[in-house]
UniProtKB/TrEMBL annotation:
InterPro entries: Bact_solute-bd_prot1, SBP. The lineage of its organism: Bacteria, Bacillati, Actinomycetota, Actinomycetes, Micrococcales. This is ABC transporter substrate-binding protein.
């Protein structure tokens, strides 16, 4: 068994590492039994590691893009966190401008648009009607007008001074410090870091849903990892399957959720009477992440051995457009064309 740090690597695991097709190896009945039980997997979570209708791996630790909020900065800028509208990117941009006018610094951090944020950027594209790849997984599609429009929006936020340009870890540290950044859209895996920063530095932390574009419903994607089975010996396969089941069991998600901040994919554990109900009541910040499971859209796993190069090409194009002044209408289609070569090798 092996843990893949991103579900975007599943195509590589299946085709190049010969990861077991769990639907064929253990059977659909065994999978249904495991995904079911007293606290079944959320229906959208159980298919996160599927390829072509078969279960390639077991979804393991997963998050959705959460909008983290520093309420103290908002109040200092004369904004009431309880009445402000951050449901859309357009309204969030207006609030961010008010904060930036007060602080003189960017009000929004967004690791989605820098290296390492591809999983989250996919959700932004999906939310604006763009696709990453065709349904038959043969054609790269992130050069579309919808994708260009998405990048143009954040280019505008950078140009008006509300969006920061920093490396992923620097963004986390800046937000946790709590002095200038009012918003950050990122994974819930940083929950402990942000809670600790708020307590240490004396500011108030809150969360909200991933904003949508206009009247288009947001399509939050998943970060995280999945467990794949690589053993070829039948006895080792049987042992690995038992361990995979334990690592995605009720008990495992008690630890994963309370100690790290990832979602309990067996989401009914948080309901009244469940083993995580009391914990969620004491930690209401997690409720946004849980509720976004109902809208979860799987991140795309590109085919071929060069799947990481596809992300690299797209990351570079996005950053060149947003931060380096290049035209998204040129960089995105060009990136799609070059990425096409990688999935056809």
């Amino acid at each position: 068994m092996r843990k893949f740090s991103t579900v975007r690597a599943l195509g590589f695991a299946q085709n190049d590492l010969q990861a077991a097709n769990l639907t064929e190896l253990v059977g659909q009945d065994a999978l249904d039994a495991h995904f079911g039980g007293e606290y079944p997997f959320h229906e959208r979570a159980r298919v996160l590691a599927d390829i072509d209708g078969s279960t390639t791996a077991l979804p393991y630790v997963v998050s959705t893009p959460v909008l983290w909020i520093n309420e103290s900065i908002l109040e200092d800028a004369g904004i009431d966190p309880d009445t402000m509208d951050v449901s859309t990117w357009e309204s969030l941009s207006q609030v961010a401008q008010q904060v930036t006018e007060k602080t003189g610094k960017p009000a929004l951090n967004m690791p989605c648009v820098v290296t390492g944020g591809s999983w989250c950027m996919q959700g932004l594209f999906f939310s604006n009607g763009a696709r990453m790849i065709s349904e038959d997984r043969s054609t790269i599609e992130f050069g579309s007008p919808e994708a260009v429009e998405t990048v143009e929006f954040f280019k505008g936020m950078y140009e008006d001074g509300t969006l920061s340009n920093e490396a992923e870890m620097t963004q986390y540290e800046d937000f946790a410090r709590g002095d200038t950044v009012a918003f950050q859209l990122t994974t819930s895996a940083v929950q402990s870091m942000f809670m600790g920063g708020a307590e240490t530095n004396g500011w108030t932390l809150d969360t909200s849903y991933m904003p949508q574009f206009g009247d288009k419903e947001a399509a939050p994607t998943n970060s995280g990892s999945a467990l794949v089975l690589l053993a070829q010996d039948p006895k080792k396969q049987a042992a690995a399957w038992e361990f995979m089941k334990f690592m995605t069991s009720d008990r495992a998600y008690e630890v994963i959720t309370t100690e790290i901040g990832y979602l309990p994919l067996r989401s009914t554990m948080t309901e009244n009477g469940g083993p995580l109900h009391a914990w969620v009541q004491k930690n209401p910040l997690v409720e946004v992440n849980l509720e976004q499971l109902d809208k979860l859209v799987p991140t795309v796993a590109y085919p071929g051995q060069q799947f990481t190069e596809v992300d690299r090409v797209l990351d570079t194009a996005i950053q060149d457009a947003i931060f380096q002044g290049q035209d998204p209408a040129v960089t995105l289609p060009d990136a799609a064309s070059r990425a096409q070569d990688y999935i056809e090798e």
